[in-house]
Amino acid sequence: ERVYVERPIFDAFVARLKAGAEALKIGEPNDPEANFGPLISHKHREKVLSYYQQAVDDGATVVTGGGVPEMPAHLAGGAWVQPTIWTGLADDSAVVTEEIFGPCCHIRPFDTEAEAIELANSLPYGLASAIWTENASRAHRVAGQIEAGIVWVNSWFLRDLRTAFGGSKQSGIGREGGVHSLEFYTELKNICVKL
């Protein structure tokens, strides 16, 4: 939900992400043209919409979205929200620091690699991160410093199920996937005998 972009490409990036978000086709999962569905429940939608309002109250620039899309009558009762992008929020805004779990993001420019790493690690959460760069050395250097359970480089949500997955900090403990999944099906027992 937080996107950090190098300042020289910031405006172009925001424009392209806006175009991508607005090109999403909202609809039912069985609609072959749809590529964006509803949230899981109305309760979750209200939580997400409360953050949309909080962003506005905190002075965000709404790049796109920010509300509930108009849907055909037979879909109007669903938990629909618009994909939403903001800029201009302070780093301590609740919209930036809390996990919303909605289709939204705040985009902020950065000037140095060290600043980007500091911003990425500034929260008590660390489930996943992605680094997009044409510089392989930078990708390896930065990925090693990001405090997250998984760091994708030039990809997103790509994972071999045999590899470990899990969060860092307050995003969870332990790992699942591959041999790590055996722990879910194993009950360890400690038998302590004094001789």
TrEMBL record:
Keyword Isomerase in record: no
Tagged with keyword ATP-binding: no
Record-linked InterPro entries: Ald_DH/histidinol_DH, Ald_DH_C, Ald_DH_N, Aldehyde_DH_dom
Key words, A-Z: NAD, Oxidoreductase
GO MF assignments: oxidoreductase activity, acting on the aldehyde or oxo group of donors, NAD or NADP as acceptor
Sequence ranges assigned to domain Aldehyde dehydrogenase in this UniProt record: 1-191
Any Pfam family the entry gives: Aldedh
Annotated family: Belongs to the aldehyde dehydrogenase family.
Protein name: 2-hydroxymuconic semialdehyde dehydrogenase
Species this protein is from: Pseudomonas putida TRO1
